[in-house]
Write a structure and sequence with these properties.
CATH superfamily of the largest domain: Bira Bifunctional Protein, Domain 2
CATH architecture of the largest domain: 2-Layer Sandwich
Number of domains: 2
Bound molecules: phenylalanine
CATH class of the largest domain: Alpha Beta
CATH topology of the largest domain: BirA Bifunctional Protein, domain 2
Order of helices and strands: HHHHHEEHHEEHEEHEEEHEHHH
Structural class: alpha+beta
Low-confidence stretches: 1-5
Helix content: 40-55%
Shape: elongated
Number of helices: 13
Largest sheet: 7 strands, mixed
Distance between the termini: 92 Å
Strand order of the largest sheet: 1-5-6-10-9-8-7
Length: 354
Amino acid sequence: MRPPGDKVDTEKSVRELRESAAREIESASTARELEEARVKYLGRKGLLTSILRGIANLGEAERAVVGKAANRAKEELTSLIAGKRESLEQGLRDASPRQLDVTLPGTGDWVGSRHILSRVARELREMFVAMGFSVATGPDVEDAYHNFEALNIPEGHPAREQGDTFFVKGGLLLRTHTSPVQIRVMEETPPPIRMIFPGRVYRNDAPDPTHSPEFHQLECLYVDRGVTFQDLKGTLAHFARRFFGSRIGVRFRPFYFPFTEPSAEVDITCIACSGGREKPASGTCRMCGGTGWLEILGAGMVHPAVFRHVGYDPEQFTGYAFGAGIERLAMLKYGITDIRFFLENDLRFLEQFA
Ligand code: PHE
């Protein structure tokens, strides 16, 4: 039999152990110090562990009291350690911004910007609105009547058989130009008309630096009594100088479109070689091929057959129309060498215009 005081002593030493362990855990300032305290009290040969091991050798009454106290102390210390570990880790996290790695990329805010094509389209729109034109749009999915027939392109006409049209179910198609919007507007509105029609068009072309199966056009239509080719020339010359700069030269070259008569293609003096005035070192200018001119759009006086399709009297009214590729205008103005850049979303391209 052990002396009665023994029980009291064991219980007391459990309490003391618990207190000193708690102090050491609390005062640990690093994970390593905390671990040392844990091993000292709760490790395999720890002070509290030894007491717990010795419980089996105690008398029955003592075993219950000491066992309870020691187990509770173990639980308390275990949770104290866990709490302390958590707060030491949190402290490390809080402190880490001060350990600044100046070689890392900055975290500055990222500001987006409008796509270059949207900006050019808006610039064009604003220019024509300032000249008194209003804006309308038409459907991308068209019927053959509006895309061809009413534009004086009858069935069997080569422009319809070129294989460059995307056909859709139900005899419909993706418009190959914005000219069908001319028809839709004239069907609904009596003259005079002074409007522009921006929009996306589709052609079954293999992509290359100057071809894309989808691109954008800006169509223009002006119909009234007494509109002449001279009005067309004046408007386009003004537009070209505003868009490309006051020194640009403009010429009208006879051309053929089924829906205009007479028709013309409009050229500007080459931006790269200033219309042939500057001879590039390589010999021939790569942009204009040495001609000194760059084509920018197709134009002409609205064909009487078109007016008859929409119920306008060609004896009373005349009009001009033109259609320009928006990508083409942007490429010429900004020296962009491949139309595919517009759709690729490569930031190295887009950021140059931000
Ligand atoms: N629709 C023609 C094209 O896509 C352009 C054009 C429009 C020409 C209006 C003349 C008048 O090529």
